[in-house]
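Help wanted!
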Amino acid sequence: MAIKDAISLEGVRKDFGDFTAISNVTFDIADNEFFTLLGPSGCGKTTLLRMIAGFEETSAGKIKLYGDIIENLPPNKRPINTVFQNYALFPHMTVKENIGFSLKMLGWSKSDINDRVAEMVAMVKLEEFTDRKPSQLSGGQQQRVALARAMASKPKLLLLDEPLSALDLKLRKEMRSELKRLQRDTGITFIFVTHDQEEALSMSDRIAVMSSGKVQQIGNPSEIYDTPANRFVADFIGEANLLNATIQKIDGEKIICRLQSGQILTSKSSSKVNVGQSGTISIRPEKLIIKKQNFKGQYLEGKLGQSTYIGTDTQFEILLDKELSLTVRMQNSSLTSENYKNGDQVFLSIADDAAWFLLD
Amino acid sequence: MEKAFNVKQYNGFYFITCLCLFILYAPLLIVMIYSFNDSLSITRWGGMSLRWYYEVFYGLESEKFKLAAWNSLIIALMAATIATIVATAASIGMVRGGHFKGKSASFGLISLPIMVPEIVTAVATLIFFSAISFKLGVLSILVAHIVFCIPFAYLPISARLQGIEASYEEAAQDLYANRWKTFWHVLMPIMGPGIISGFLLGFIISLDDFIITNFVKGAGVETLPTAIFGAVKQGIKPNIMALSTLLLLFSVFLVTLSYFIGRKGNNLKTNK
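Answered by r_m:
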């Protein structure tokens, strides 16, 4: 174990009656890390967060905060604060009173509370609104109050439960860099829960991808995106062409597979694989290049189908045979004057590291 | 296109509305008007006067009425306060207590007294008090009033609590408040309007109660309703009308207060 693990989960489990919401989750989060729990709704990420906060009891396993066992402490005894999805700002208190609430509960003196509240208010740029009630603030301002309130007591760990989901797109993007800045400036370890993979990829130091109560993969954003651990991760993060394949030959790092449609494709993998095993090949749409002429190197042959213009990129559908099609995405600036027409015969260039083999 | 439903377009809408309002309020109106009648008769108009109001406060029966009013006020205040505390605790248990065995039964038991005919409760309470040799008097009235005020106080309080998201309490606990501080600093202020409505409802119900009070009051102890009833038995005098008018205005004041507090509470809730 590293010396500075902010929080460690060991075999954490949660049962609701017969239903297992979280099964055997184990991971460590380093001090000062921006850690994201990413997964579709119902995957257990919020339950896991609530167990760390103390709102749900663990059915089994240990939770350690800087080495101290905390899973049996009530929420008010854990130096962990939460930014709630609906903010849960106290409606009868002003912005100032909301932000100072934790300090009052901790028994700080009035002048100390005032100083810290002023500091927090400046940090989230709400100086003009300190005497307003939450109902007199916009959604974005409420969000900032919630952040300031949760950080006022300098908790050892800050939990954020989909805090951006109630904001509109533009504000959400602004808040991403704002959150990142707050995390850097305060040095507080963040655990961020989201179902939005773009949010996760853009903000996190590391991401834990979850589905059906299990952690599917933990890694930094590029590991998660480029080298997914299984079909679920490949499918959930970004777009991916997923092809069923069987291993025919292994040559060092190269795994030579046969697709269902009969073509042969060279791929790589992080799993230990053997000849004869079947699995899925994942190829990101932006890693495929469309060419009109036959060329040396690895390629798949197909017919051009529908093309969709999406601003910076154009997305093409390439039909390999009657049932199998691939999605290709190319930047419009890199497209040559070559005219791509529906039904054209094309060749898809696939670099050796573009195809990623996943065991079923 | 279909027209929006508009109740006013039906024939006789205004006539039926006015008739209903007349039937509801004419008797009250007559009592109010005749309370200013400068005549001993309760049916013949003898000119405007405040003599019956003077009579209520300084007349022959004024001492009796003052004592009865004092009893009523003290009993209503204490019964409503105690009932509100019990009802608040019951609401938190019922709404926030999660699932427990006998939850629906508990809810039924809390609200049943509203449905039970009052005369039955009155007789049962009297029998119970004599069975345990409880001395009848102000205290027995108070105990009986606390009991029947609880369901009335419970309804607005639990309704309010149901509308409050549990995340406020979670946030308070998350920010280092223990259970008591969570209740005191967060839940109670947010529940406030419901608690005040419950209190006022209990207060009015207690102030106004006649049947149960009449059974358990014991000899010589009167509340305002029993004192009025006692006076009416000897013939209706205009001072009763003046007294009734005062009682009516007081009730209207309380109901109006309760309404405005409830409305303020709804404004509090908008946190979106």
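OP: Thanks! One thing I noticed: Chain B touches chain A through 24 residues (CB under 8 Å).
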